[in-house]
Amino acid sequence: MIYFVVGLAGVIGSLLRYYLGLSIHSWWITSFPLATLMINYLGSFTLGWFNERITQSYSVPEWLRLGFGTGLIGSFTTFSTFSVETMTLMNQGLWEMAFVYVLLSMVGGLLFAYFGFRVAYFQLRKSKEGMETA
């Protein structure tokens, strides 16, 4: 069952990534790979939030945790596209843009994962405070 859920979630995540990428490319027309950057930021935030908020609040079955994290978010975000886009920028002689992209991707990905954890932490704290006053 886990393989099926991870696979199905992977299909959904990759389709979400594809359509969100198309949407971003419809208005962002430059060499800078903004779609991948934004998708990876969103995925980093979502996975950070999920790992902190949901798994700390509920007894999450393994199939759901793996389906969401590995399947959905794993296929939604992509390191391979990031790597190829960076190499493409470098091959085009856009070294500065490639450097900025790598820097924004690495630092931004970590920051968005951190933001996801922090949002979940405050939600958990608020939830626990509400339980104590009830």
TrEMBL record:
One of its GO terms (molecular function) is fluoride channel activity. One of its GO terms (biological process) is cellular detoxification of fluoride. It comes from the Bacteria. Na(+) is not transported, but it plays an essential structural role and its presence is essential for fluoride channel function. It holds the Pfam family CRCB. It is a multi-pass membrane protein. It is found in: Cell membrane. GO terms for cellular component: plasma membrane. The keyword Phosphoprotein does not apply. InterPro entries: FluC (IPR003691). Its main location: membrane. Belongs to the fluoride channel Fluc/FEX (TC 1.A.43) family. NCBIfam families: crcB. Fluoride-specific ion channel. Important for reducing fluoride concentration in the cell, thus reducing its toxicity. This is Fluoride-specific ion channel FluC.
